[in-house]
Amino acid sequence: MIEIEFEYKAVLASLEKLQHASADLSPALAEIGEMLVESTKQRFENTKGPDGKPWLLNSVLSTLLNDDKKNDRPLTGETGLLMDTINYQLVGNNTLEIGSPMEYAAMQQFGGKKSEFPFLWGDIPARPFLGVSARDEKEILDIIHDHFQAALS
């Protein structure tokens, strides 16, 4: 008969560290939140959505009616208010929210038709600025990996 002895204290200690790290993801989520805020703000500079597709340009009428349209770049008026209000918040230990408190943010993200929203002077094309790009996804996975790696150290 073969007898094998296994010292499991080190394994249990590592599993306990992982369990603790997974119960409170707030450090990793805060780092992810900071990264996503910067990535989202970069989209305003690049005028591209998270999928890499360029935003539609402002309409000619929109450009003529609004003096604050900087270089005819969508969502980048002189105030930069929408971009400046992009923020994140943690909800509990395991939830991250990112967005803007501006009332018009959803309209810019998803677009809208005058037929659905009579207060609009015309149709607004969707210009998605929120979301996770392929590069963001890789960075998120790296942050999560580092979070759990640190727990085991």
Sequence-ordered SSE layout with sheet pairings:
Blueprint: H1 9-23, H2 26-46, H3 60-65, H4 81-84, E1 87-91, E2 95-99, H5 105-110, H6 134-152
Antiparallel strand pairs: 1-2
Task: Describe what this molecule looks like in 3D.
The chain has 153 residues and is mainly α. The protein has one domain. It is 46% helix and 7% strand. It contains six helices and two strands. It has a two-stranded antiparallel ribbon. A hairpin with a 3-residue loop joins strand 1 and strand 2. Helix 1 packs across helix 6 and helix 2 runs antiparallel to helix 6. The longest helix is centred in the first third of the chain and has 21 residues. The two termini are 37 Å apart. The model has no long low-confidence stretch (mean pLDDT 88).
